[in-house]
Amino acid sequence: MKIAYKRILLKLSGEALAGERKNGIDAETLGNICDKIKEIVDMGVEVSIVVGGGNFWRGRYGHEMERTTSDYMGMLATCMNGLALQDALESRGVPARLQTAVEMRTIAEQYIKRKADKHLANGRVVIFSGGTGSPFFTTDTAAALRAAEIEADAILVGKTI
Ligand code: UDP
């Protein structure tokens, strides 16, 4: 089969993982998404994912809180989603690597573009978490940024399922 895009970046919002629950992670929804990703990987497409965190926390939820602290909480939320995606993909036999823009050595690789390239070329799904690593941004910005860095052929967006 001829594939339209060799390398894609999929932006998955946190809400997309919550399904009808609206917050947290819905196991069935997560599983369905990962089944689809597996289909694409099996076609030979290099798949990277930027995952959001809005199903747990968004910077703007912390009304009384200093904004950068609240934004860091949001970035941590993206890492939780990233771990869930990595787990669900690997349980389907799809090799996946979680990278994060916020250093977290014991649970994820640090974001390194050259390493991400290597994983993708070797058929591993790369999940980018932690957004850009800077407060006052969103994971939509991170999606555009990472897509440019890894020279993705297309950005696909999954907001709600
Ligand atoms: N965030 C941030 N910098 C980034 C990406 C995300 O500070 O580069 C924080 C921000 O507080 C944001 C939260 O992480 O509200 C969750 O990300 P986002 O709202 O983009 O998640 P989504 O709406 O895609 O689920």
What can you tell me about this protein's structure?
The structure is a single chain. The protein is of the alpha/beta class and about 160 residues long. It contains five helices and six strands, in the order E-H-H-E-H-E-E-H-E-H-E. The protein has helices spanning about 15-20, 25-40, 65-90, 115-120, 140-150; strands spanning about 5-10, 45-50, 95-100, 110, 125-130, 155-160. It has a six-stranded parallel β-sheet with strand order 4-3-5-2-1-6, with helices on both faces. The longest helix has 24 residues, at about 65-90. The mean pLDDT is about 95. The chain binds uridine-5'-diphosphate.
Give a quick set of tags describing it:
binds uridine-5'-diphosphate; 6 strands; globular; alpha/beta; six-stranded parallel beta sheet; 161 residues; 41% helix; 18% strand
Show the helix and strand layout.
Blueprint (H helix, E strand, L loop, with lengths): L6 E6 L1 H5 L8 H16 L3 E6 L15 H24 L5 E5 L8 E2 L2 H9 L3 E5 L9 H12 L3 E5 L3
Parallel strand pairs: 1-2, 1-6, 2-5, 3-4, 3-5
Helix pairs in contact: 2-3
Bound molecules: uridine-5'-diphosphate.
The site of uridine-5'-diphosphate has 23 residues, from α1, α3 and α5.
